[in-house]
Q: What sequence folds into this?
């Protein structure tokens, strides 16, 4: 498996002859596309069709909980099964600055895949989940291309995200309503003025 991981990495990883424009595009995907997660949370919670707002906030709560659980699991796995990044063992070419910490599973991959899978599983419309999944695949490619992750880091991130979705699915019937109600109370307390002014939805 490790030999396959290295072979696939070297096939995807950029070389010093890669066009600078392509490297800049890959860096943008690797560093900035992940911002789609907080933007989705903020926009989906604060604004939109009032008739669908409650249902959308439930999905955002589920997705955010899945994200948190996935990142916690990723930290635990990283502590228990540390794995060096490609540049840490002198393999391939690195085009994105990164600390030489454990690479498995990818935090970026865990974040975007957990969010995408949550929307695919629980949103009535599958388009947001598919768009997020496309972002996830692009992020996965870019971080391998730039030399800071292995392909199996991304596959592992997808599997951990899938497991987290299963865990949330089990926990939600018992704790979901209470969690959403608590978040609603906190939101109204923090954004009371903006709600009264009509800047954001109640």
A:
């Amino acid at each position: 498996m490790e030999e396959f991981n290295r072979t696939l990495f070297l096939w995807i990883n950029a070389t010093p002859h890669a066009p600078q424009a392509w490297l800049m595009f890959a860096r943008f995907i690797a560093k900035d596309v992940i911002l789609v997660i907080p933007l989705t949370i903020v926009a989906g919670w604060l604004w939109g069709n009032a008739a669908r707002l409650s249902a959308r906030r439930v999905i955002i709560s589920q997705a955010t909980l899945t994200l948190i659980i996935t990142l916690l699991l990723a930290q635990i796995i990283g502590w228990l099964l540390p794995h060096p990044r490609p540049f840490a063992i002198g393999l391939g070419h690195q085009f994105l600055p990164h600390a030489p910490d454990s690479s498995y599973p990818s935090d970026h991959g865990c974040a975007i895949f957990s969010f995408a899978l949550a929307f695919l599983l629980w949103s009535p419309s599958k388009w947001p989940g598919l768009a997020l999944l496309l972002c996830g695949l692009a992020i996965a490619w870019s971080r391998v291309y730039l030399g800071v992750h292995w392909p199996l880091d991304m596959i592992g991130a997808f599997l951990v995200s899938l497991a987290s979705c299963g865990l949330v699915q089990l926990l939600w019937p018992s704790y979901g309503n209470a969690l959403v109600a608590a978040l609603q109370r906190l939101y109204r307390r923090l954004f009371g003025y903006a709600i009264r002014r009509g800047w954001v939805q109640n």
Notes: The two ends are 51 Å apart (CA to CA).
